[in-house]
Amino acid sequence: MLTEAEITVLFRTLLAALLGFVIGWERRAVGAPVRGRIITLTTMTSAAVTAVGIEMYATQASRIVAGIVTGIGFLGAGVIMRSSTGEVRGQATAAALWAMSCIGIIVGTGHAMLGVILTLSVYLIIAWDAWPIMTRINTWLKKRKDKDLESQQTNGTDKPVE
């Protein structure tokens, strides 16, 4: 039978896995280099290790958290890549990975509601471009830029026509 401490660790770990899945799914949907499973696993593992540290090794909890943050920093650095054209990709995914690991730590310490609120905040930030109003604004800005370029070409100047 599971002890009360083990049930607590299990609950916190499962909640963190669910929260990580939400952000991982968004990253997968946009074709990010790190897919949903990796974000889910890092969030879940961060929560599990933190919860075990607090429940069973309370005097060493700060060291455990520091180790998690350091390790995730190395994982995040590995996500950022430069393409052959010089374009740097993966920063948003690396930031999401790091943020979700920190949220895993927060959930692992027992702050479940804070973890849920922060996950919603992360989702709103990384899905910003997919919001309908932002899509409309971006389309309008692109049309305006194209119109300015067209008027520059027909006018023969480098300055936009007002």
Describe the structure using short key phrases:
two-stranded antiparallel sheet, 162 residues, mainly alpha
Q: What would your notes on this structure say?
A:
With 162 residues, the protein is an all-alpha fold. The chain has two domains: 4-128, no CATH class; 131-162. Helix content is 76%, strand content 2%. It contains six helices and two strands; from the N terminus they run H-H-H-E-E-H-H-H. The chain has a two-stranded antiparallel ribbon. A hairpin with a 5-residue loop joins strand 1 and strand 2 (88-89). Helix 1 (4-29) runs antiparallel to helix 4 and helix 4 (91-108) runs antiparallel to helix 5. The N and C termini lie far apart (76 Å).
What's a quick, concise take on this entry?
With 162 residues, this protein is an all-alpha fold.
Mean pLDDT: 85
Structural class estimated from helices and strands: mainly alpha
What low-confidence regions span 5 or more consecutive residues with pLDDT below 50? none
**C-alpha geometry:** elongated
Distance between the termini: 76 Å
Largest sheet data: 2 strands, antiparallel
SSE topology sketch:
Blueprint: H1 4-29, H2 36-56, H3 61-79, E1 81-82, E2 88-89, H4 91-108, H5 112-126, H6 132-155
Antiparallel strand pairs: 1-2
Helix pairs in contact: 1-2, 1-4, 1-5, 2-3, 2-4, 3-4, 4-5
